[in-house]
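Figure-free illustration: sequence to structure, shown twice.
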Amino acid sequence: MIVMKKYLLIIICIAFFGKTSLAQFYTGIEAKVAYPIGYFNSQVEFGYGPVFNLGYLANNKLDFSICYELQFFNTQQPNFRITSESFSFKYKINLDKCIPYLGLRTGIFHSKTEIPAIVIGQNIETVERKENAFGFAPTIGVIIDTRFSKKVNIDISTSYSVLYFNSKYTYLSMSAGIIYIFK
């Protein structure tokens, strides 16, 4: 919860500084679904969760952002989730109302599993298992102009994520979200 408060404070600060200067800052929120493949598919069924972005539009072709992602996965073990703090960039091909892009996201990923354990006396306790890993995700997507405001766009993308925990986790994901540009 403390991490989310920090990100909320960062979003408010960027919004304030982005509005008071002529910089092209943006913020976004996406909904993501993930389909595990390879070894990871034998561990979990599918994942879902939000992605929060804070970014800077360097020019018409490049933008950079920091991201926070929280993925919940359906599995036999309750409460398995992966969070990440990552950095991403996008190279855009500007067309009229539709802007396709190629991107790369890289960062630190954290997995957390709560495993129920029976202790002497039949009391059920939970044990947390945590791991940290490096990961990256090549991305392809499109930014669509909403036509009702130049400040609001729709971002739809798909990516192939590779995470290097004790075992290599890979998954395909699809996300859709809204971007707000501070102009």
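We now fold a second protein in the same way, so the two outputs can be compared directly.
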Amino acid sequence: MSYLVFYYFRLARPLHIIFDLAIAVAAAYFIVDYNYVVTAGKAVPNLLDWARILIPALTFQAGLHTTSLSFFANSSSPLLKRLREEFIGAKQGKPTKYAKIHQIYAYFSWAILVQLTVLLANVAGTFYLTSNDVKLIPIVNIMAFYYLIVFGSLYAVLLSLRNVGILFMTLTANSKPSTPTT
């Protein structure tokens, strides 16, 4: 797993990393703060509702990324063949040892790792909060966990949106529009 983390941060574009993290941090802060104020401090019901919604969504996203990785690994499209042969940085005159397809692998693998981690945290948190006396858990701990779950979920959604764009561009790169028959 450390191999995947290393390659993601090595191959991902810094602007993508900064944008995804900044948007997720800001949005999570506003969502958690707003929900806490509106519900008069009832963080546990909000957290449990959030977790119930996210478990199927994160499972679907992780499945989508796993299927996409399989597509990228097994496709014989001319674009993917070219991405396997071209190296990152070659156009700038500083080629690296990484083929361009490795960047796509890193993006999709990272998304799977994030989604499964947030999914497991959701399941564990839901189980813990429903099986223990919530009044004994300090509100700071609940709010921190709530924030991390919301942040992780939003971050996973942003990764999915970017990766769906990559998948779409890959699928349509070599397609020629057909002329309609009347």
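Summary for the second example: The mean pLDDT is 83.
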